[in-house]
Every structure is written in structure tokens, then in C-alpha cells.
Amino acid sequence: MNMTYREAISQALRQAITRDERIFLMGEDIGRYGGSYAVTKGLLADFGEERIMDTPISEAGVVGVAIGAAMGGLRPVVELMTINFALLAMDQIVNHAAKLLCMSGGQITIPLVVRTVGGAGRQLAATHSQSFEGWFAHVPGIKVATPASPYDAKGLLRAALDDPNPVIFIEHSLLYGLAGDVPEEEYSVPLGKADVKRTGTDVTIVAYSRMVQVALEAAALLEKEGVNAEVMDLRSLRPWDKETVLASVKKTTRAVIAEEGWRTGGFGAEVASTIASEGFDYLDAPVQRVAGVEAPMPYNKALEQAAIPKASDIIAAVRAVL
Amino acid sequence: MADMALAERLDKALLVDLLRQMLLIRRFEEKAAEMYARGHIGGFLHLYIGEEAVAVGAVSAMQPQDYIVSHYRDHGYALARGSPPGRVMAELFGKATGLSRGKGGSMHLFDVPRGMWGGYAIVAGHVPLAVGLALASKRKGENRVAVCFLGDGAINQGVFFEAMNMASLWKLPVLFFIENNGYGMGTAVERAFAGKDIYRIGQGHNVPGQQVDGMQVLEVREATATALEQVRSGGGPRILEALTFRFRGHSMADPELYRSKDEAARWMERDPIVTYRRYLGEQDMLSQEETDALEREVGATVDEAVRFAQESPDPEPEALYQNVYLD
Predict the structure, then answer these.
(1) What stretch of H or E contains B276?
(2) Nearest-CA distance from A174 to chain B in Å?
(3) Nearest CB to A50: which of B137, B139, B163?
(4) Is B140's CB within 8 Å of A100's CB?
(5) Selecting from 3.40.50.920, 1.10.3720.10, 3.30.70.2750, 3.40.50.1820, what CATH number does the domain A195-321 have?
(6) Which residues of chain B does A101 touch, with a Cβ-Cβ cutoff of 8 Å?
(7) Which tens digits make up the pLDDT trace of B212-262?
(8) Max Cα separation, chain B?
(9) CATH class as words, domain A2-181
(10) What is the ipTM score, two decimals?
């Protein structure tokens, strides 16, 4: 059936809580308020306060408590209101969630999902408009999902909930209203498997999260110029599907990578370096990257729009590799 | 001196066992220092010498199903909880037979089957983990209390307050056991904490606290038992502060320029092992022969632990990639 990205995530949560009594949600204003982005709206009434726990504004503490609850045999799903606030919980995520299985010699498991929301475009200024998925993807021991469509959002969330490892599930605030076809029943979209959103022969555009939409927009415009672009959605950044990316580049011989966050140290650099070192012989042009402007995000609407990659930026990069 | 009434309620075997455990920790730590000096142990080594009555008294009051979540000066808890000394020493040596398979080292001892849920080396970072374990315990109706050992340095971290607040808000079975040894690394408590009494730090969050003499094992045991009973009955978390002192530096690298020899000497006069052994002798609970036998037994255990660690294999090269993810 047709539903939005928001509804798909909400349905996945509802089905998971119904199916597995170990699963419960924790987060700021997810219960009575209904969730900052209304993803958890209505869940408290249906499942009660034990399963839908409103927490104090204590990101580090809440993630730490969730890790402990997971160690104790529960399956917590934490909502961090935005990825910007995840910085407050970074110690717990990086030093505990990602490490305890290994550092305990395999004695401790942390089946934890941390849902959070990244991205810019709503005039929320510098501290509320960031894209930190690359920071998480840097860390062994956690997995990172970045759904770009309603179908993937529901399926990747199921995969995250079935995973015995901690998964950071990064939604995008501008995708919540995006509608698409989503099966009513539960299904899983595996982590680490990219999706070819549009097949093409002339250039591979690699993207994830909202940049998939922007890349598809660029591809539609390029088609009018007679350029046939292949658009690839990574869907998850750790693990990430380099095989599918390399296979596509082998076919098209040209690659453009689009991400919303800052260029320096961004996840696109990892993709570009892999293409350069493992797919160098396929390439007919240097890999191009499209990324956010390297400045704190401004509040002013026009300035903000200038800082976020647009279809025209991707088109320019494609022209540069053709 | 220890309260006679406390001892009267315990049988001789237990009273002597408490001494044996403290001695084991003392001799183990002395040997670890020696092994560190000889290059068998890497990284940081934080010794528990001087604080033995805290771990032994507290752990002896816990039930087998209870959780220990500890700071990084953690050897004492593992040994008091019954982790094999050989496997503890092997972990310090980084060996495959170590408690954490050589992946954790001195600061990260894990022995989950025995209720030792880890030593943690980000100060206060483990406090919410203990609260989460308590949440799971309560949700599953398990009657397991999470005992979170933290140092006086940890109480100035924000996450300590966050975790304590949630534990109190949700009435979770946690005991925050604050081991006050006077110094957060080299910074004296009074130079780091603006309050007066650490055990009162939970007042604003409705977490009652008490203080106990951490140099007296029976006092620690009694206070812990009382606190655990209160926590177990569903009243929510409590704080117990034990006043103690580490006789050695913060770690092996510490020249101890920040505290006076007089201060250390004053505390060493109250050595928890010496005073308790003397007390047991005065009560005719322990003869000199028995004391000597105990020393020999503990000495042999520690020698055997070293032998086990030395003879154990290093982890295989493939271990580098093991337990990064669970399949």
C-alpha cells in the first residue's frame, strides 16, 4: 500500500513491538508528545509506558541505559531526536555499544537500535542541520543504515531489529513526507546491500539518504540531454556494498558520489578511494564528488540552500566526468 | 575497630574467608606490580592495594545473581567474585586464556558467568549501563540488583547525574557504590567536588545515601547488605560511600607528587588486612599458625596464577577480527 517514510517507520516499530516482547522504545517526547517528527505518534496509547518510555533530556544517559538494558536481555530502540544531539551520546555509542562485544571477549552482546534524524533544509541553523553518518560509519562494531525510501525504511528497520549488533538508523527529516509503495506485512532489507534505483550506461551516481532523491532528479534532467545515468542507493554505510558500486562503475566507466554533509572526511571519500584503488582500470575519468559547503549551516534560507547539494551540482559533476 | 556485634553474627569460616580474599587481592596486586616491572604486563595497571576491604566486604554481601559493573581499578571485584586468579593474571598478560581473552587488559575484566559485568575505563561511562541492567532486571522480574562501583572522580561527570536521575525516576534496583579513595587520579576530592559529603549527592534526586568506613571489611559488608536489602525491596536506588585510600599510586606511572607521605602513613596505619587479622587474633578466631597457613595458601595461588599466565598462549592472529561483530 502507499504510505510515507514516516508511516513506514512507524508501522515497522508497531509490528516489532507487537511481535517481540523484548522490544521497547526510549526517547525524549516519544510518548505523550508523540515524537518530535511524529514517528511514534499513537504508540503510547496502544502499548503503554513500559514499552514506550518517555525519558528525560539526557542523551548520553539514555543511550547508556539502553546499552545496559540490551546487555540485560532486552531489545531497546532509542530515538535520539536529531543526530546533532547524538554528539552528546557519542561516548556511549563509540566506547560502549561498539566495543563491549570485542573487549569482553564475546561475553556481552548489545542488540540495540538507535534511531535518529539527520540532514539540513529546514532553516534550523548550524547546530541542527548536520550529517554525521560518516562519523558513525568510521567505527567498527556498529552498523549504520541510511534509508532513502519508505520501502527501505521499513525493511532496513526490520533488519536492524533482527541484528545482534548495535545499529545506528539514520532517517532524514526531509524524507518523512515521501510516499511510496510499502507492503503491509513485515519484511527485511539486508544491511550492506546497495540498490540500483535507476539503471544507466553512461555514469554511476552513488548516493544515500536524501541525496538519492536529488540524484534521481539530476538523472531525469540528464536524460533530456541524452545522458543515461545509473543511480545507486548505498542504503547502509557500514557495512557498505562496494561490490555493487564497482560492478556499476565497471559498466559505466565514470562515477560521481553525492552526499549532503561536508566534503572533508565525508563518507563519499571512502567510496571514491575504493573506486580509485579497486576500480581504477574501469575509469575513463577521475571520480567526482558532490558534497555540502564547508561552513556551519546558515539560518538564512537562500544561504542554506546554497550550502546543500542540488541536482544542478550533480549534473555539473556528471558533465565533468563525461 | 570492627564492631564485635557484626562478627558475632557470622561464622568463623566466613570471617576467615574474608581475610583470605583480602590477602589474595593484596598478594595478587603485589605480584602484578612485579610482573609489570618485568615487562609482562602492558598498558595501565591500577592497583587495588589498600582498598581490599571495599571489594571484599561489598561483594560478600551480594547475591550470586546480582550484577557488578565496575570502574577500571577492577581486579579486586573479579577476585572477590571468584574469578580464577590465573585467568585474571592471564588477562593482565594479554593472553588468550584471560578473562576477556586478552582483548580487555587490566581495566576491562569481564566474567559474565560470575556476575562480573565489566571494568570500564571511561570515568562514569559505566553508570548508565548499570542502570540499564537494573531496568532489564526490573522489567523481567529477576530480583537482580546492579551494583555500580564508581570512584570519587566519577561523581563530577554529567552522565552520573543523568543515570542516577533515571534510576530514581523509574525506581530501579541499583546501588551506586562510591569508592572514595580521596583522589581522582592526582586531584584531591576537595579540589574537584564543591559539596561536602559525597554520600549526600543524591539528595536532590531522592536517592538516599550513607557512608561507611572502607577500611573495615565487616562494616562494609554490613552496610552493603543493608543497602542491598533496601534496594531489592523496590525502594529505588541508593548510594553507599566507602572511605578508603589506595596505598600505591594511581597507576604504575604515578610518582605521587600530589599527596603527602604523612597522609599515606596515617591511612596505612589502618591497613584493612593488618587490622582485621589482628582483630581475628584478638577474638581467638585465628591463630598465628592459621595465619601463616593462609599466607602460604594465598602465595601458592598467586604463584600458580603467574605460572598459568606465563604458560598460556597469546591470542591467535585471527583473534584480531573476532567479536567485532556478532554474526
Answers:
(1) helix B272-282
(2) 31
(3) B139
(4) no
(5) 3.40.50.920
(6) 323-326
(7) 999 999 999 999 999 999 999 999 999 999 999 999 998 988 988 999 999
(8) 58
(9) alpha beta
(10) 0.96
